[in-house]
Amino acid sequence: MKPNSSIITFSKRKMIAATITGYIILVATVNTIAATSEKTIKSKIENVTVFTNGAQIFRSSPVTVNPGITELTFESLEPAINAGSIQAGGTGNFVIMDVQHVIKYPEPKQNTNANQSPKNLKHIQMLEDSIVTIAFDLEEITMKLDALAIEKNTLLNNRIIKGETKKDTLNLLKDAMLYLREKLNNINSELMKLKKEQYIISLKKQKMQNDLVLLKNYNLNKGELVKDETKYQIVITVSAEAVASGTITINYMLANAGWTPSYDLRAKSSGGMQLTYKAQVFQSTGNDWNDVKLTLSTANPNQSNIKPTLNTWWLSFYNPYSYAYPVSAPTTVTKARSEIMSSAEGTSANTTDKSYDEDGDQKEVLQTIADYTTVEENVTNTEYEIKLPYSIPCDGKTHFVAVQTKDIVAEYAHFAAPKLDKDAFLVAKITSWDELNLVAGNANVYFDGTFVGESYINPNNLTDTLDITLGRDKNIVITRVKQKDKTKETIIDEKKVKRITYEITVRNTKSSNSTFNLQDQIPVSQNKEVIVALIEASGGDLNKDTGILNWKMNIKPKETKKITLTYSITFPKDKLLAGL
Question: What's this model's pTM, rounded to 2 decimal places?
Fold first, then answer.
């Protein structure tokens, strides 16, 4: 019997051990569950960094956590959070274990009324179709923006523009610069139009989606409109060994926000110029920005940062078509454009502690805004930190934020090219403009307190001086008349000679002196059989490569100056000239 007793005793011991082990596991599980708690965090937007496309939101909140695991839930957040951009940090004796972006949808309510409105069902279908259509429109705009960005990068990285080709000449480079300026202005203008169009269409899409949610809830709730109760949250899991107090901070990226630069240029005839740098800020993120620290950044976080890769450049023969009729030789500008396009080589947030003036006054910002803006140049972008609080409502409208006001030194001069336009233009020449940290944008121009029109500031200018047109000056009267009695055509041997004369008159009707720059031109031959000769230019400087003549003069009040321009063209008499 002893063996049996010992077997029973072993079985009892095994049962007792299993019972004790199960009890320990149960107690540990209960303690773990008891140590895990949840807390809802109410936070306020404190900082906002607005990019040219998008915004980065900074929130913080004081917290106290118990020992163990705690889930801190930030509620009342924006719908369009970029989950991949969420960052969390803080201070306190606890450890952040996990960060999650959570969307909680309301439980659908069953409609006890089976007779749903056919009219609403039809409207729902129409809205769904419209949302699909408008999504294609937005995709098309995005493709256009990408194409323009590639074209802009191609121009700016062209070897002729950078002066890297071996065939560069001063004339070719000047013509390339003229073409670059013209093309960039067109591209920037088109980019601005597309961005505005994209913004307007995005607002329409958002409104359609909101209406669709309301209509669906209407049908699901006995015909009663209900509020969208979808909750957008960020849940942060922390661990603490004891009770700990501290601060939790989060930041994330949002779409449906951005800013565009604009300027006010106020010039005085007595001298001096004042430049006011403004930002047109808009946002429809879902929450108002009330009394936030605002930072404007020239960066675009949505732009691709993948470096370009060059593929093999294959070279082969090209056989042009032959034509029976004569073709005029391309002009220098046309040649420059073709060389630019043919030789083009394509190219495809960090945060800092910010100071804040709690006693700032809104009216004082507009008077001395330069005292409240800090400019910080980073490696790849420029940031403008506005030290006074700003409020930007979530209405999708443009709100002006004054960034800087600076007094700048400018030299005034008149410019005219009467062959193209008979008016004289007043031009402000600004040196050391690269120290102003400007971004390309439109400018409202005022002269002696009067609005004279709009101009465009292009800080990508490659010259040392930034020229800004202040408008037409009707007090300078210019005429350009072809002198028929001095314009002749003769035949000498087998050659035909055309002699052409123009008289240009410039009169200053103002009571002050005028520094004047006048331009005209003579044709340039690219054929040895066609010879162009300048006969008289009244002291003008000729660029032989481009054929452009420059006259720099100082015209006294009520003074009139006359310039005679005479040139001749010699060519075979049995041939016709193109371009005259």
Answer: 0.56
